Amino acid sequence: MPSKNRYLYWILLLLVTSCSKTDENGRIYSYKSFNPIKVLNVHSSQNVNLVVDGEKYKKVIGQSPYYLKIEKLNALFFVEEINLGNYIHHIYVLDSKTDIQFEYAGGGFGFDLGVSNEVINSKLININKLWLYQNVNPKYLVYEYDLNSKTCRHWYQDVDPSQTLPAP
Predict the structure, then answer these.
(1) What's the gap between Cα 55 and its chain centre?
(2) Which string of b and e fits 29-64 if b means at least 16 CB within 10 Å?
(3) What is the pLDDT of residues 13-55, one digit of tens each?
(4) pTM of the model as a whole
(5) How many CA atoms lie within 13 A of 26 on its CB side?
(6) Quick one: three-class SS letters along 39-105?
(7) Alpha carbons 46 and 73: distance in angstroms, whole number
């Protein structure tokens, strides 16, 4: 007869991790995990971990696949929560395997990542400047990322950014 400890081990293993979707090249995948010590805490939730080229990013926000593909840069945009209210916005360039990080306090930009391709959009202004924007009726929330200075700023505007942004 199998031991009770073996059953408990398998139950805890299933609770601790659950796999998610992997991209077609196997370079990107995500999985959920949570602390088994907090298993009885009803307010505890699973953490999403995103792995890109072997590098693990913890507490990624959004919904599967947890990133936005930026075709013109061949890059991924995703957001990692450091602690409550503080985030790191990542632009990971797949060709060079470079992670450009932007520390950002406040705001929950990124929670809608993965919902659909239309929720958060991108436009490359020039090789060093990227704008991501989202319709938050009745306005648009625009984030500007300067890839050289690694600075980020945001603002709201009334006009659809895809109609007003300069061409790259």
Answers:
(1) 14
(2) ebbeebeeeeeeeeeeeeebbbebeeeebeebbbee
(3) 444 445 555 564 789 999 988 766 655 666 566 789 999 999 9
(4) 0.79
(5) 0
(6) CCCCCCCCEEEEEECCEEECCECCCCCCCEEEHHHCEEEEEEEEECCEEEEEEEECCCCEEEEEEEE
(7) 31
